[in-house]
User: Which sequence fits this backbone?
């Protein structure tokens, strides 16, 4: 079952999560994929959300190897 959060909280998390994303097709695709994690990040700090976004961008857009 999915987690539901309010629109205001979802908007705040999305703003933090996607603040460094551009408009390239790859970034738009990754953004769509990461939107499903917004409810799971409801208890995360701003830093944790930014770190999550940075890590995902490094892996999927910059081709870095994931941490074991």
Assistant:
């Amino acid at each position: 079952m999915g987690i539901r959060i309010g629109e205001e909280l979802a908007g705040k998390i999305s703003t933090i999560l996607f603040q460094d994303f551009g408009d390239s097709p790859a970034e738009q695709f990754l953004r769509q994929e990461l939107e499903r994690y917004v409810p799971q990040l409801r208890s995360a700090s701003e830093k944790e959300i930014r770190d999550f976004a940075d890590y995902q961008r490094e892996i999927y857009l910059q081709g870095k190897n994931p941490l074991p």
Summary: Residues 35 and 63 are 21 Å apart (CA to CA). The chain is about 55% helix and 0% strand. The chain has a mean pLDDT of 92.
